[in-house]
Amino acid sequence: MKTIAVDMDGVLADVYRQFLNLHFQDTGEKLSLESIRGLKEAEAFPLLKKHVNSPGFFESAPLIPGAQATLKKLIPHYKVFIVSAATEFPLSLHEKLRWLNNHFPFIQWQQMVFCGSKEIIRTDIMIDDHFKNLDTFSGKTYLFSQPHNEIASPGKHIRVNSWKEVEMQLLPDKF
């Protein structure tokens, strides 16, 4: 059975919606996804460090539409691992674990990988929104579209804009 590494932030957890909401709460400025298209996350959100280091940021992030349903469909056909760089932000490790247990109760603890660099990950497929993780990966790669990567060429990676597109790529016989 082939293996898949699925990133969490920006792929399962809608951290962009979280950042937009918190930016508005802190500044009163309502940003749109279009207005930050092509900007790195730190450029788009000047208070990013404050937000990712605030209690509750990771645990309360909204779910990206379609993620749960598609992962449920992938599990009978692939060994799925959720891989998240959770050691960068001190509060994120426990919050991400609680978030996954809440939104993906069908994912077992053995399928959760919290790490620093994803260079060590050796699955057949990786789905991520950051080039830094995909570029060093030796398997098949899918770039999950987010504002920070939308205007960049996907290069050798296959761009997917939604979980429905992931499903169409990885379960083509179901369509």
From TrEMBL:
Signal peptide segment: none
Domain of life of the native organism: Bacteria
Family, per entry: Belongs to the 5'(3')-deoxyribonucleotidase family.
Protein name: 5'(3')-deoxyribonucleotidase
Source species of the chain: Cyclobacterium jeungdonense
